[in-house]
Amino acid sequence: MQFISTRGRSPTIGFSAAITHALAPDGGLYVPAVWPVVAETAQDAGLVEVAHALIAPFLHGDALESQLPQILAETFDFEVPLTPYVPDAPVRVLELFHGPTAAFKDFGARFLAACIARLRRAGDRPLLVLVATSGDTGGAVAAAFHRRPGVEVAVLFPRGLVSPTQHRQLTCWGDNVRSFAIDGTFDDCQRLVKAAFGDAALGARFELSSANSINLGRLLPQAAYHANAALALSREFGAAASFIIPSGNLGNALACVWARRIGLPIADIVLAHNANRTVPDFLESGTWRPRASVATLASAMDVGDPSNMERLRSLHADVSELRGAVSGASVDDVAIRARIAADADRSGRIWCPHSAVAAQIWWNLPESERRRRPWLLVATAHPAKFREIVEPIIGAPVPLPRSLAELYTLPSREARLPATSDALREALLC
Ligand SMILES: *Cc1c(COP(=O)(O)O)cnc(C)c1O
């Protein structure tokens, strides 16, 4: 399988090259040159088998093709439950937060790390994976690459602007993972990462790679869990389910669109946003107006210019066609708070602020819609990851899952840096 750039001015490349380079030379994002046909899986196939059937065609002819079974076994080695929500309603919750750092980004990061580690050869320059993070991505990437031979990781986060729980996950690794608290904003961190890619001294010492959400390697495992959930719901309810997906950069939702594109039984896909309304406004007005993000309770979705919109529009160039493929909705912080409080009280289900966006958008549907066809609410993070927000709303402590509790026992290590390329280069070269 070959991949092309969304901007059409880069050579086609294979899967291994696409995940190593992340961004195409023309600045576009890699998408499949042709859409594969996915083999049918057995009725009782599990997540790993469904993932294999879905992902194998994308790796056809690639150096990693024969190693896909082991890569998938490493990626999906924790549970991904589908749980009930409202009794008697055809609605299920896809819980994507049982991995090492308790958010869905563990899947993409682990798949990417398992692939990239297998592409390293003895004698290669060390690979330096740079990641700028506003919170969740850095922890997932650090956990996935921790102690991988031949790979070093530099996590850059804005000092003082991540939650205490996120801070733990960004700074507890050591070994081949270095954490840098940057005196600046998330945008400064991103700027430093971009500049590092053009830095001759760093380029002489390391091969550089990026693990941010535009990397193709993060999308495929996400398509796999959407596919598996779609098959489970279609077996249970005898109809294709509609998905409501908490969205920021649209990586998770795009993976669901891809799963539907290659034939999985998925009906509507709702892009569920917080008060950052760039996408819902675009679907309504037809005019693309990216803007600065505003801070909300669902901070991992605070994105004003979602990067994967470029992939979505390469699939559906025309706005009216795009409106047929996805819909958009948004809820504000007041509604997020109210949903978390109401469900904790009514049923004991505790949402993280991101997952609460999806739940509230389901409640905003007319009752006839909620009852008429199956719905899947995607839960993207464990509430304990955002306990500083959730606990005051529900007035009770949120127990830590075991994976997070273990991270809390590790020492925290970070280096503080001014937001300059010189400071970062010096720190990385020493
Ligand atoms: C990253 C993140 C999102 C947004 O996902 P995108 O793929 O960027 O749309 C939603 N919820 C949580 C908890 C996240 O960490």
Q: Would you kindly provide a written description of the structure presented here, covering whatever features stand out?
A:
- The protein is built from 19 helices and 13 strands.
- The strands form three sheets. The chain has a six-stranded mixed beta sheet, with helices on both faces. A five-stranded parallel beta sheet has the order 8-5-6-7-13, sandwiched between helices.
- 43% of the residues lie in helices and 15% in strands.
- Helix 3 runs antiparallel to helix 4, helix 4 runs parallel beside helix 5 and helix 4 crosses helix 9.
- The two termini are 40 Å apart.
- The structure holds pyridoxal-5'-phosphate.
- The site of pyridoxal-5'-phosphate (PLP) has 17 residues, from helix 10.
- The site of pyridoxal-5'-phosphate has 17 residues, from helix 10.
Which stretches are poorly predicted, pLDDT < 50 over at least 5 residues?
none
What compounds are bound to the protein?
Answer: pyridoxal-5'-phosphate
The helix tally amounts to 19
What general outline do the C-alpha atoms trace?
Answer: globular
User: Share of helix among residues?
Assistant: 40-55%
Share of β-strand residues:
15-25%
In total, the number of strands is: 13
Strand order of the largest sheet: 3-4-12-9-10-11
Mean pLDDT: 94
Q: Radius of gyration, Cα only, in angstroms?
A: 21 Å
Structural class: alpha/beta
Main β sheet profile: 6 strands, mixed
Distance between the termini: 40 Å
